[in-house]
Each structure stands twice: as structure tokens, then as C-alpha cells.
Amino acid sequence: MGVPGPVPGSPGMPDAPVLDREEVDRALARLGAEYEAIETSLLALQDHAGRRLLEGADLSGTTKERWAATERSITVLWSLFDAYTATLEAAREVRARRRWPSPEDLAELTGLLRDDGVTVPGAADGETGRESGPAVRGERYSLEELVDRMNGLYARSLDVIVAADAVWSALPARIDLLSAELQRTRSLAHSVGVRPGEHPAGDDLERITDELARLRAQVIADPLAFWVSSSTGSSAPGGGRPDTGRYDRAARALEDIRREVAAVLDVRQDAEHRLMQLRDVLSRADRTLTEARQARGEVLAKIAASEVPAVSGPPTALHEQLAAAAEYRRRSLWHRLSPLLDSLEERAEDELHRARESLTAVTAPLAVRAELRGRLDAYRAKLARHGLAADPLLVERYDIARRMLWSAPCDLRAAEHAVWRYQQAAAEALAPQQVEGKGES
Asked: Which of 17, 152, 201, 288 is positioned for an S-S bond with 355, CB 3.0–4.6 A?
């Protein structure tokens, strides 16, 4: 609804002149166009889908209060429009009396078109519901003031209707779609044992179901409670957006449950394969620990004065849980099997890693002995290539180191020292030949 442009000689100006014929004709044309625009807007408001929904709904809360005030505003709006129509028709009748209006006609037209010549019987205020004055006295407006008031009442009324309609258009349909998805998820969850009282996700599904039912009922009864006005200060009717916070939280919670149920379904599909892999990992851990225990006995028998770490027994608890997992699979308790398999897979890998570390720690002395043996034979071979292997000192030191490394139990510290002494003697024997070789080159 538009507001007409300024009228020459508007109220409030002292001794405003009487309009002439051309000014009257222009004012009538402008006010006639304004009348058409106002009538079109009021009829559109009357037929607005949101208005019809509000009239037929069982409202509560904020929406009930604001719609009651809006209905009063619409009643006042039509009363003001009727007064506007009557005044405009009266002015047209005066103007139609003669082609060239008399001074009396122009004075009467000036009073109707410019001064506060519109009398509105005491009507209820559209916002508060209080009487604006005794009906016998009424209220007086100029046509321009009347349009300003109609514009304000129209904007506030349309704002309520558009906001409620926007919420009803956006949220209930989305809630219904989410509820349908929830029902499919519940059915799927029930098939894999995710039920209320048996699994946390089953309890969460019940809570989401109740929340969506409450949310839908509240949105239908009080849509304006779910409306967030625009923060930009826009004066356009319906400036804002539906508040989807509760819906979004329910949607995210349902998506989390859906992923959890999907994970349980995956467990059902590949449970046997995962159980076989777990048995294989634990079997390798058991074999590795057995090998470590055997190696420890060998080290204690063959290596003297060596600290050999103890080797733990087989992972009994893991084997018991693996048996429980197999029982869950047999009984189709997929919701219990899923977290147990996840835990077992991680702990089984840790157990295999621990068994390998135990074997490495236990066999470390044997590895040191093997390295010393290899180093001793490597130096002897090098001396043989230079024709020095028969040197009495080298032969003596080689025999001492070899007896230590090939005897049981082997004293690693003494054997390492003996190998070092042999290396030193070998280096001294090879030194002259290395110097001679450099001189020839």
C-alpha cells in the first residue's frame, strides 16, 4: 500500500489556500489511484493463504496473542478504508456537479481532500484493543493521515501473516520428512538389535521421536515462536527467517545414529571375516610368545651374566573376549558385537606388537654374539688374504676369542673384549702393508 504524495496546502499550514480546479482534479486522480492500490492490497490480505490458516488454527502462545491483535487491526483497517471510500466518493460527487466548480464547491472539496474532513466512528485500536474514543464523537483525519494509519496497520498485519505462513511452509514438511527417515532408521536399527533399553542409540531414537512430535505440535500451534526477525532492520513485511535450531539438532542426532546403525550393519556383513582375522592375529601373538619363551631358555643356557627379560603368558583375557564375540555373532547380537570387535582388533594388534618386542628383547644377547662371531671371522679372512693369518700372536688371540664365542655359556663382555684385542692386533699387522701400498701408488 503506497502513501500519496504531498498535497499542496497540507494541514498544519496557517491559512492554507483553497484548491483550484486543476489542483482538485490532480488530487482526485492521485487519490483514485491510491484507492485502487489500497483495495487491491486489502483484498490480497483477505485472501492470503497464511491468513486463512491462522483463522482456522488452534493457536497458542505468542501467535495466539499476536493474531488476536492482528484481527483487530484488520477490522480497523477495513473501517478506515470504508471512511476513505466514502470521503473520496463524496468529493467525486461534489466535483461532478459542474464542469467549472464554484468557489463554494472548491472550498468544500478542499475540506474533503486536504483538511481533516474524514470522520471515523470510534473504532477499536488495532494494536491494544482499547477504544479510541466515543462512537458518537469518533476521530477525524485528513485523507493523507488516514492512508498513513492504514499503511501502518496493513504492514503490521501482513508481517504477522507472512511470518506465520513462512514457518508453516518451511518446518512441518521438513519435520515430516525427518520423521519418515527416523522411522526407516528405527526399523533398520531394530533389525540389528539396536532397541530402547538395550542400546544407547535405541534410547536416542526414542528421544528424537518424542522431540519431533512435540516440535511439530508446537510449530502448528505457535509458528511465531519459531520466527527470527531480520537483524538488518528491514521494514519489509515478513523480514526474517524460520528458526530451525531444534529441527537441525534433531537432524544431526539422527544422522549420528544412522551412521552408528550403518556401522552395526557393516559388522553383520563382515563379522566372520573380522573374527577370522582376529584369531589369526592372536595366534601369531601366541606363537611369537612361545618362540620368545623358548629363546629365553636358550639364552639363559648359552649366554652367561646376561639379564634376560621375562616373557608373559598368552593373552587369556583376549581369547575369552574373542570367544564372547563369536557367541554374539552366533546369537545375532550385532549391536554388542560391533564395539567388542573394534576393541579386540586394536588390542590384538597391540598384543602382537608386544610379543614381537618381547622376542626381540629376549634374543638380543644371541644377536650380539652372532655379530661378534661375524666380525671375528671377517678379520681372520682379511688377514688370510694378506698372508698374515698364521702370525703366532694373531692365531693366539683368534683362538681365545673363538673359544669364548663358541662355548656355552658365553660371557659376552669377555668375548667382546677378546674380539677387540684381535682387531687391534690385526690392525697393527696390516698397517705396514697399507703404508707400502700407498708408497707404490
From this structure: 288
The yes-or-no verdict on residue 12 having pLDDT over 50 is no
d(CA 427, CA 436) in angstroms, rounded, equals 14
pLDDT band at 138 (very low <50, low <70, confident <90, very high): low
Residues of the chain with pLDDT > 90, as a percent, come to 27
For the whole model, what pTM was predicted? Answer: 0.57
- Residue 237 pLDDT level (bands cut at 50, 70, 90): low
68: amino acid identity, one letter: A
Domain ranges of the chain: 21-162, 164-229+238-268, 291-436
pLDDT higher than threshold 50 for residue 198:
yes
* pLDDT for the residue 3: 38
